[in-house]
Every structure is written in structure tokens, then in C-alpha cells.
Amino acid sequence: MPALNEQNLPDWDLSHLYEGPKCDALKADLEEASRQAKGFAAAYTGKLEGLDGLAFGNAISEFESISEILQRIMSYGQLLFATHTSDADVGQFYQTLQEQVTDISTDTLFFALEINRLADDNLDEKLTNEAAGLYKPWLKEVRAYRPHQLSDDLEKLLHEKSVTGRAAFVRLFEETFSEMRFDVEGVGEGLTQSAVMNLLSDKSGEKRKAASQAFGKVLGDNIRLLALITNTLAKDKEIEDRWRNFERPVSERNLSNQVEDTVVDALVDSVQSSFGDLSHRYYKMKAKWFGVETLDYWDRNAPLPDDASTLYSWDDAKNLVLEAYGAFTPQMADIARRFFDEQWIDARPREGKDSGAFSHPVVPSAHPYIMMNFHGKARDVMTLAHELGHGVHQVLAADQGTLMSDTPLTTAETASVFGEMLTFRKMVDGEMDPARRKILLAGKVEDMLNTVVRQVSFHEFERRVHDERRSGELSADRLGEIWIDVQGESLGPAIRFDEAYKNYWAYIPHFVHTPFYVYAYAFGDCLVNSLYGVFSGGHSGFQDKYIDMLMAGGTKRHKELLAPFALDASDPNFWNEGLKVISGFIDELEEMQ
Asked: How are beta strands 495-496 and 295-296 bridged, if at all?
């Protein structure tokens, strides 16, 4: 395979949104959004109760138009910052943009607050009109927050202070990591986080060990700051949760995910009960493949001893995913192909770029953008399939409009994980070499354990941290103790940790960006396992039903989305059925020994 810098890995083209931070179009949109927001406030503040259905529907449409402009502006800022996190000018631009958008949106803050003060019969009457009825799913989501709504003045204060509160600490976290460099013995000095994380799955055990220790050392050097950020954000959340009367730290996330606490509890309980049958069993088997009783944590994602370390070119990865999508339905492949043809992907690793991966929906009038760091490994192919799944979903849901195209985190992971499964089946079904098939199967099991077991352990870490934070600040050592506890419980006795690993909690961005996001990955993986089982069983009209599910965007909850496939996530056995797929893959690996 050619070296990465010879592959012409794509950079995205953000000029589809704006030509640059100082362009006239961006300035004009800020001015237009401000003008519309002030006019909207003047026209509707204190008047919603007296509006008829048509006027109310028109008001929501105006609010959606303003939201579209603001989301387009913020999407540009977020995407630019993601690939220039160490650029001071870009950081300043992004912060200024957040402050400007926050100021503008303050004028429209009253709208949701007044909607939640409408009497049920008043709103029901308005919804009989087609213009208002169109937005019924969005209104249902807004009204779900009625029991947790504060006074208008308090809501305005929290909104305006967000840029100097939570958002400021998130930015501090991002910029701290963007400045980190790692000296890896035997590899090189000044490596980025993306490069170091890539080494953790290197063929060389010495490189994996050196990378893991270098990573842990730099985390340790910054651990007081990272602990301060974590404690501050946890306390900030505790204060707001208390004022809003959320029963548990996870409850606000569940509400935004449109999923009941009991369903999430059932998922977590099912996964935790399966640790022994899944991760404990697999890593014990992997240790035997390496000829040891216990694996060091830096060997957890190591290639198998007989893995020839097959690398994939960017074109290989592209073709694999497009062929897998196309075999399922040409419509998905046609949409995915646009991401490559129209420069909607940024895949080239480089300094100052975020080390993660995402698909940003932007706004319905534009298109999504995908960011990832491609190193040519099978996992990178899976990442591409995952993010393209998100991207296809976002394109299909765009017709729902700005207010209703976004899906809750739980069901948002459905299309991404399904895309991974399609691509994995394409790869493994086409592999005739038993040794290579074993390697692919083991890689898939490890990805699923990382998605299900590891994410539920992250959820447990968050739960313990937020619960303890209510009694006072947690030291960096205490955070490390909780981390080691939950990792030991989830990964099992076949994985060995050292002192440096106690700091690894600090690099998980979801803890900072989106508290309690992580269980959504396990939700999506188990859901897709069940969904794929229906597909492979020959369910009539599956592809059309699947596309319809993606097109629904945020207009339906998980019960409605899964009903056409005769699946129900509230059924206690639902999660166990999904986990059986992972267990079955491990059974298959055991039979190969």
C-alpha cells in the first residue's frame, strides 16, 4: 500500500458553507439571523396562547428558519475548529462565533418556554390545523421538558452564561489535547494523539507498550487540569439537574434520547451480566493465542500473532464500503458515493486535527460532513462504514427539516452500526482463507466489545463519578481508582493494568462534550444485532422499511421505528438477543482453535 501521504487522502471542502471566517456571506447570515430573531421576538413574545393553528404553525416555521441559519453558522465554526484545534486564530474565531450565536438565539429563547406554558387543550386545538400539526413530533419533544423548565429569567441567564461556563471548559479540554505531543521510544518524538492511538494496535508489542506508556505519562502530566475540568463540569451538571428536578444524572440524557430510564437500565444490566460470557471469555482466549495467561492492556487491541497486518488503501476502503452498501440497496450506495465525489470527507491525519471521527449533519439545506483519521487498518475501514452510515441517515432525514431531522443518540447509532455490519459481512464472506477469516472475525468481536462492553463500562464510570461528585470534589487519584475498578470488572482477569493506565479516563471526549452519551453505542449495537437478524432471516420488504426508518429522522421514537420489524426494545429479552450475536461470534472463534 502506498504511504498515507501518497494516497491523496481527502480534505473536505467547507466552501460549500462559507468561503472563510471573514467572508461576506457569513457576516450577512449573522446579520440576517439577528434581524429575524429580533423581529420574531417582537411579533410573538407573550402572544402564543392567542394564536390560531395557522398562525402558530407559521410561527414555528419562522423559528425553524432562524434555527437553520444559526445551525449553519455554528456547523461551519465547529468543522473548521475540528481540523485546526491548535490554531489560535481559529480558536478565537470559534469562540467569538459561539458568543454571537448565543446572543442572537437569546431573542428566540422565549418560544419553547411559552410553548410549554400552553394548556393542553389550547395546544390540541392549534394542532388540528395542518400548518401546526406538521410539527407535532417536535412539539412533543419540547413539551417533554415541561416538568424541568425554570423561569424565563433563569433560563435566559443559563443560556447566556453557557459560553463562559460549560462551553469554555469544553474548549479548554479540546485545546489542551490539541497541544499534547507524545515522545514514543523507538518511534519518534512529538507525535499527535491520533498517531499514538494508532500505535496501540500496531503489530509490534514494543511499540504498543511504548505508545501506551507515553500516552499515560502525558495524561499524568496534565491530570490535575483534566481532573479540574471533569469536576467542574460534573458539578455544573449537578447544579442544573437539581434545579430542574432530574432524579438521576442520566435522566436528562435519557429524556433527550427519547428513551425511558427503565429501558436504559435494562440495557446496562444485560450487558453487565454478560461481561463473563463476552469480554472475560474473549480476552482469556486472546491471551492464550499470545501464549500468556494475562494480556497487558496495551495488547487488548493488538493484531493477532498470525495477522499479516493487511493494510487497505483509501480506494480499497471506499470500494469495500460502497459495494457493501450497494449490495444491500443501491440507494444507500448512491448517497454514500456523493461523500467521496463532492468532498464531504476529511480523512487525512495531520497535526492540529481532532483525533476522533464523526459525521456532522450540518443543516438540511446543505449536507453532512465526515471527519476521520485514516491509517489504512481494517478498523479504519469500519470507521468509514460507520460514519457513512450516519451520513446516509442524515441525508435521508433531511426532508424532515431543521427541527425534526436530528435523531436521538440511541437511534442515531442504528444506521452507523448497521453500515459497519454490512461492510464486515462483505469482508468476511469474501474471505476464503480460514486464518484470515479468523482474524476478521476476531477484529469484529473486538470492535463489538469496544462498542458494547467498553461503552457500558464508560457509562458506569460516569455514573459513579457523578454520584460521588454530589458529596464533594474527586481527586485525580480517586477518579483513577474508579476507572481501574470499572475496567477490571468489564474486561476481566485476563487484562493487566499498570500505574499509567489509571489516567486513561481523562482522554474520553464524550465525558466532557456530551455526558452519558456513551450508552447510546451499546444501545445501537445491540439494536442492530437484532435488526440484522431480522434482515438475514429474509424479512419481507426489509430494505424499504429500513430506508423509511432512516427517513423518519426524529419524528418517531424507538418503539415506532422498530415496530415494522416486530422488534421492541422495551422487551427485557431484546438486549439479550442482541448480545447473543457477539457470544455466537466468540463461540465460532473457540471452535476454530
From this structure: parallel
Mean pLDDT of 141-155: 93
Rounded to the nearest 10 degrees, how much is the dihedral formed by the CA atoms of 307, 313, 318, 324?
-30
**In this predicted structure, what is the pLDDT of residue 396?**
97
CA distances from 126 to 54, 58, 136, 138, 199 (A): 8, 11, 10, 14, 58
Catalogue all structural domains in the chain, each as residue range(s) with its CATH number. 14-164 (1.20.140.70), 245-310+409-593 (1.10.1370.20)
The predicted-structure confidence for 37-63, as pLDDT tens digits, reads as follows: 999 999 999 999 999 999 999 999 999
377: pLDDT confidence band, cut at 50, 70 and 90?
confident
- The residue assigned the cell 463519578 is 465
Question: Are the C-beta atoms of 441 and 428 separated by less than 8 Å?
Answer: yes
Distance of CA 116 to the CA centre of its chain: 29
Q: Which of 275-289, 331-345, 426-440, 485-499 shows the lowest per-residue confidence on average (mean pLDDT)?
A: 426-440
Rounded to two decimals, what is the model's pTM?
0.84
How many CA atoms are closer than 13 Å to the CA of 249, on its beta-carbon side?
A: 24
Q: How far apart are CA 399 and CA 357, in angstroms?
A: 25
H or E element: which one contains 22?
none
Estimate to the nearest angstrom the gap between the alpha carbon of 573 and the chain centroid. Answer: 26
